[in-house]
Design goal:
Largest sheet: none
Strand content: under 5%
Distance between the termini: 36 Å
Helix content: 55-70%
Shape: flat
Structural class: mainly alpha
């Protein structure tokens, strides 16, 4: 699935099953909540916190997909073409960071 197809799929689902988009501020709060859930699993599974028994069954991919879903909702609501935005962002990084990481002593 391309990013465009994902945006179209989410839009179709929202309009047929979800009835309508939550407003942008509500979706921003939901995105923050979803990122927090992902952060909790990452911190406990890969960080130094001990993982609670209830967290062990959490699907990391599903939590990442929740974040992506809400991000796509926000893009759709605000008229952002994520394919175009991502390409521009990648182009910016390729210019700005062309040697930045290679020259970073901390990464060696």
């Amino acid at each position: 699935m391309t990013i465009k197809e994902a945006q179209d799929t989410v839009d179709e689902w929202i309009k047929t099953v979800g009835v309508r988009y939550f407003n942008e501020l509500t979706n921003m709060a939901i995105l923050t909540e979803e990122v927090g859930e992902l952060a909790r699993i990452m911190a406990r599974r890969y960080g130094e916190q001990s993982e609670k028994e209830s967290d062990k069954s959490k699907d990391l991919g599903d939590e990442m997909a929740d974040v992506l879903w809400v991000l796509i909702c926000l893009a759709n609501q605000t008229g952002i073409d994520l394919t175009e935005a991502f390409q521009k962002n990648l182009d910016k990084k390729n210019v700005r960071d062309a040697t930045r990481h290679k020259d970073n002593e901390k990464l060696r």
